[in-house]
Each structure stands twice: as structure tokens, then as C-alpha cells.
């Protein structure tokens, strides 16, 4: 039942990059503040209006993520009454949308600000040496898998073994995504890309080539949410949050229940779609986490856009490219636009831009409903959000 407290997105902002690095000189916290203020201003609000603050931490802040909401709140000079520091990797920001939506519905806050900032490329570090040990990874790390690519490669190998998926299928995703990036003046990589280019690029962890892997860049983004009733007083085009879901299963890839099936995405997607009251045919565009090409293929299957094992056929023939039947990752995604450690924030920003009709040359005509799905860890967590044009 509608009561005016339905959650909507009213402001977005991201920091400009050049060659994958911040254009402006500031600390990672400074860039977080920059996008936070810009998103609030775009919404027609003031920082003093913000009483909900959500962040998954900031790459580059010592002891990554510790007291991140407290640190950021102090830096912004605000006193939030609702905070959320949930960090489930790249899907954290889709989860934040859900948590902020629930807080807004229940009156825990009136204006929620979600922020992320990373200077990962500038630092040339992911702080792996400073992370606490994970007991279940004792069976993996000694064999050369301290970083995610090995785990994703294992999933790709398994999918190929079970279903006959090919490296060409995965390359279709990278090429289609690059075509979207060529329409985005802010994308880091805009040079032409062919399937042969992907297949001839350096093998990183078989079967994943260099061009099957996401970029490493800086990045900062922010998003402002409030209630539909409050949004009536703002000079903005609200985007409604209609449904959401999240799930996670493991940290270490050896604990993943099924390497060829992305169960968190299945659970999160089912819940989000049911809550929103939509069907797959209602969705006009999708923004899916693309840390690696296999991430996308597994997600498409788990989210129900095609049957398990048929992802390779689904993406063939550049179906997800501009002009294709299935618009996906319209900014150029993590494979070609940017990927600052955790990319989920930027999936949301792009979806909002598309639903507002602000996509420029890459605008999806008639876009009214978007599905956004984030993946975190090593295929560990999933969070899905359904957004609709206001």
C-alpha cells in the first residue's frame, strides 16, 4: 500500500577520470566527499538534510573499511541517525539500495546517501597484504590463488566442461561491452575490439584471457535516496526502487556450492523480481557486474534470462551490444569503462542515467525498467535491484 514513503533515487554523481585515474588531486576521502556533495546538490538538497549514510569503505583508507561511515560522516560534517557499513564486495551498493529503501519505508531516515571511493589504480594496490586471514582459504592460497581471477577461471572451466561453453562465447561479452564503451566519452577503453583480439590477448588464468578481465581504475560515486513524498518538492526526476534481494554463500571458491551455477544471483534475482511485480519481458535494460566475462554469463543464467547452460548461445551474435535485442552494461561496464575495486555503485549510476533519458549516444530508447545486479567476492555474494522510471 502506498503511503508516500516509497523509496526513490533523486541524485547521482561520479568523479571524472583520465586514463583510469582521478583527474582532480585529492585523497580517496576527498573524492568521496566530492561525489557526495555533487549528488546531494543534484538532488536539490543540502548535506545537512542527509540523515542516512551508507558506505562499503574506501580503498586507500588505512585498515580498509574500518569505521568507514563514522570517518566519512565526520569528514562531511553530518550526524546521521541511520548508518550501514555492509561490505559484501561488488554487490554491496545494490544491498545498500535495499537497506536504505527499508530504512526510508520505516522512517529511520528521510534522506539516504550511499558513497564509494577508490584510488586503486593510483595506489597500484588492493591492500591484500593487510587483510585478515580467511580460514577456508588455507586450501587455496598455497597453490597460487590469492586473487580472484583463479577462482573465476575455475568456474569458467567447470561451465565449459558441463555445457560446452567456449572462449568465443565469453569473448562475445567483452566485445559487446566495448561497443557500448565506444559510445561513452567517459569510458577508459574505447579502442575497437574484436573476438580475435580477446582470444589472442595474454592468458591470465586459463581459460580467462587479459581482455576477459575487468579494468583496474580509480573511481568515486554517490547516490541519494529519499521518499516519493519528499521528492515531490525537489527539482529532480526520481527513479523508483521497486524491488530488491540479496544472498551470499561462501568466501573461498572451494566452498562454492556449485561452480557452474550462481546461486546467490538466483536467490537475489527471484526476490527482487517478485517484489517489483515484473517479469523478465518487462525489463528494458540490465546492468550486470562484469568483473570477468564469466561473471556475466553465470549471472544471466542465474537471473533467469536464459536456461542454465545456455548463456553462451544467449550472448552470441552480439545480442548484448548496441543495436542488439538485449541492452546490457551500457556504460561499457567494468570491462571497458571503469572498475575501481568494487563496481556495483557504477552499475546503479548508469541505470539511473538511462531511466532518466540521460544516456546520450548510448541511450536505450524507451527504457522504463532496469535490472541491476552486483556480484561480490569470488562469486560469493549477489544483490539485485529493480529500478523504474518515475
CATH fold topology: Peroxisomal Thiolase, Chain A, domain 1
Query: At the first level of CATH, what is the class?
Result: Alpha Beta
Q: Would you list the SSEs in sequence order as H and E?
A: EEEHEHEHEHHHHEEEHEHEHHHHEE
Radius of gyration: 19 Å
- How confident is the prediction overall: mean pLDDT? 93
How many domains? The number is 1
User: Helicity, in percent?
Assistant: 25-40%
- Structural class by helix and strand composition: alpha+beta
Report the count of strand segments.
13
CATH architecture: 3-Layer(aba) Sandwich
Strand content: 15-25%
* Main sheet summary: 9 strands, mixed
Query: What general outline do the C-alpha atoms trace?
Result: globular
Helix count from the secondary structure assignment: 13
How far apart the termini lie comes to 17 Å
CATH level-4 homologous superfamily: Thiolase/Chalcone synthase
Low-confidence residue ranges: 128-132
Q: Based on the structure, what is the oligomeric state of the protein chains?
A: single chain
Spatial sequence of strands, sheet with the most strands: 5-4-6-9-1-10-13-12-11
Amino acid at each position: 500500500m502506498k503511503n508516500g514513503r516509497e523509496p526513490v533515487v533523486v541524485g547521482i554523481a561520479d568523479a571524472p577520470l583520465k586514463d583510469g585515474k582521478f583527474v582532480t588531486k585529492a585523497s580517496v576521502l576527498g573524492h568521496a566527499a566530492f561525489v557526495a556533495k555533487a549528488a546531494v546538490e543534484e538532488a536539490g538538497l543540502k548535506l545537512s538534510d542527509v540523515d542516512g549514510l551508507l558506505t562499503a569503505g574506501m580503498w586507500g583508507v588505512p585498515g580498509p573499511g574500518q569505521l568507514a561511515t563514522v570517518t566519512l560522516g565526520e569528514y562531511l560534517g553530518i550526524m546521521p541517525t541511520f548508518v550501514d557499513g555492509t561490505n559484501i564486495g561488488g554487490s554491496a551498493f545494490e544491498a545498500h539500495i535495499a537497506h536504505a529503501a527499508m530504512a526510508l519505508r520505516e522512517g529511520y531516515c528521510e534522506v539516504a546517501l550511499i558513497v564509494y571511493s577508490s584510488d586503486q589504480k593510483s595506489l597500484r594496490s588492493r591492500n591484500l597484504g593487510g587483510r585478515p586471514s580467511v580460514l577456508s582459504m588455507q586450501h587455496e592460497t598455497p597453490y597460487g590463488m590469492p586473487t580472484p581471477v583463479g577462482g573465476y577461471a575455475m568456474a569458467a572451466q567447470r561451465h565449459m566442461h558441463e555445457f560446452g561453453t567456449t572462449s568465443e562465447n565469453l569473448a562475445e561479452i567483452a566485445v559487446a561491452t566495448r561497443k557500448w564503451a565506444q559510445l561513452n566519452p567517459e569510458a577508459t577503453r574505447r579502442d575497437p575490439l574484436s573476438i580475435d583480439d580477446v582470444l589472442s590477448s595474454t592468458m591470465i588464468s586459463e581459460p580467462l584471457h587479459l581482455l576477459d578481465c575487468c579494468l583496474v581504475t580509480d573511481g568515486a560515486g554517490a547516490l541519494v535516496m529519499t521518499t516519493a513524498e519528499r521528492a515531490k518538492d525537489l527539482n529532480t526526476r526520481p527513479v523508483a526502487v521497486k524491488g530488491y534481494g540479496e544472498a551470499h554463500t561462501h568466501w573461498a571458491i572451494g566452498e562454492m556450492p556449485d561452480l557452474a551455477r550462481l546461486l546467490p544471483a538466483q536467490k537475489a534475482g527471484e526476490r527482487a523480481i517478485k517484489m517489483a511485480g515484473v517479469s523478465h519481458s518487462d525489463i528494458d535494460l540490465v546492468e550486470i557486474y562484469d568483473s570477468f566475462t564469466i561473471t556475466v554469463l553465470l549471472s544471466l543464467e542465474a537471473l533467469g534470462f536464459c536456461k542454465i547452460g545456455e548463456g553462451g548461445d544467449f550472448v552470441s551474435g552480439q545480442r548484448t551490444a548496441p543495436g542488439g535485442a538485449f541492452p546490457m552494461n551500457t556504460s561499457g561496464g567494468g570491462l571497458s569503462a571503469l572498475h575501481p575495486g568494487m563496481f556495483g555503485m557504477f552499475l546503479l549510476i548508469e541505470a539511473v542515467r538511462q531511466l532518466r533519458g540521460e544516456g546520450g549516444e548510448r541511450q536505450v530508447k524507451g527504457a522504463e525498467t532496469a535490472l541491476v545486479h552486483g556480484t561480490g567476492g569470488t562469486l560469493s555474494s549477489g544483490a539485485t535491484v529493480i529500478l523504474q522510471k518515475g
